[in-house]
Write a structure and sequence with these properties.
By secondary structure, the chain is α/β, with parallel strands linked by helices. It folds into 2 domains: 181 residues, 3-Layer(aba) Sandwich (D-Maltodextrin-Binding Protein, domain 2); 117 residues, Periplasmic binding protein-like II (D-Maltodextrin-Binding Protein, domain 2, 3-Layer(aba) Sandwich). The chain has 12 helices and 9 strands. Strands 1, 2, 3, 4, 5, 6, 7, 8 and 9 form a 9-stranded mixed sheet that branches. Helix 2 links the parallel strand 1 and strand 2. Helix 2 packs across helix 10. It is globular and about 80 Å long. The protein starts with a helix and ends in a 6-residue tail after the last helix. The mean pLDDT is 92.
Length: 330
């Protein structure tokens, strides 16, 4: 039976109203069960520890447990793809980072997601400043000497990294572009093994984060030339900033942030953003993050809009660097 157009429109409007009421009701009762936070890297790393520290406080704020699920592979893109395809109801979120939501777009020609389109931003969580570190017996004493040394010996030097697509790898791509050099890259299965190779003298230098480097710097088993921040880091006050050392373009902090699948209702996103904000204001949470070298975003850097702008800007910054190096991963 064919319905009159007026009746059809009334029915369609009624259905839309029911859906709207249903979405509102779900948002008001959210969360009513545990939330899964996908971490697209292995347990024990910087991202995993960050997820567990922040998730613990967010669980209290939301009244439901946040369960961390590690989904590893393909430089974090497997876990990110799972998060993107999850039902957009707030019960599956992801702690992604600079690699999964900036580098991957240029590295993977068949990437299943678009970082700036297929996710809803919740907020930046923290950032881990990057350093240029070297074996302790490498001749240069400061950054200027290091630059001259690398330019004179690039064909003899080996650089360790945590795998193609890792922050360690791409940060050194930036360094290569700034110095116009092409040393030999040596891949390892993670930041720990890459650092062990440096400690063992198997490689000459690397780009590493504070978390991976700090204990070895304090022990004097490696040396640091620069940290890619505007101000000296409280954990490593003797390491000069890139601006101080004469290479201001080397400004890199490996940020990480919470994302939800595209289509997640705004009221649910707002609840998650608010819970994250409370976690980052908590004194104990901040202390635990700072202990392994993380920087915590200030109020102006937090929330949904600043994160959306950050992803857009990082895509624009890193895509030409990666494409110029002609690096792609199938």
């Amino acid at each position: 039976m064919k319905l009159p157009r007026r009746n059809f429109l009334h029915l369609a409007a009624g259905a839309a109203a029911v859906l709207a009421v249903s979405r509102t009701a779900k948002a008001q009762t959210f969360p009513s069960r545990p939330i899964t936070m996908i971490v697209p890297f292995a347990a024990g790393g910087t991202l995993d520890l960050t997820a567990r520290i922040v998730g613990e406080h967010m669980s209290r704020a939301l009244g439901q447990q946040i369960v961390v699920e590690n989904l590893v592979g393909a430089a974090g893109t497997i876990g990110s793809t799972r998060a993107m395809r999850a039902h957009p109801d707030g019960y599956t979120i992801e702690l992604g980072h600079m690699g999964t939501h900036a580098f991957a777009a240029a590295l993977y020609p068949n990437l299943a997601y678009r970082p700036d389109v297929d996710f809803q931003p919740i907020g930046q969580v923290s950032a881990n400043p990057m350093l240029i570190v070297a074996r302790k017996d490498l001749p240069p004493k400061d950054l200027r000497e290091f630059i001259s040394f690398v330019k004179a010996n690039e064909n003899k030097l080996n650089v360790s990294h945590a795998g193609v697509g890792s922050v360690f790898f791409t940060t050194c791509l930036l360094l290569n572009a700034l110095l116009d050099v092409s040393p030999t890259f040596v891949p390892f299965n993670g930041g720990g093994p890459a650092m062990n190779a440096l400690l063992g003298g198997q490689v000459d230098y690397m780009c590493a984060d504070v978390f991976t480097s700090v204990s070895h710097l304090r022990a004097g088993t490696i040396k640091a030339f620069v940290i890619g921040t505007d101000e000296r880091h409280p954990i490593l006050p003797d390491v000069p900033t890139s601006k101080e050392a004469g290479l201001p373009e080397f400004r890199v902090s490996a940020w990480n942030a919470l994302f939800a699948p595209n289509g997640t209702p705004k009221p649910i996103l707002d609840k998650l953003t608010d819970a994250l904000d409370k976690a980052l204001d908590d004194e104990n949470t901040r202390k635990r993050l700072l202990e392994f070298g993380s920087d915590i975003p200030d109020k102006a850097q937090r929330g949904q809009q600043p994160l959306a702008a950050l992803v857009k800007n990082e895509l624009a910054r890193w895509t030409p660097i990666i494409k110029a190096a002609k690096v792609k991963v199938e």
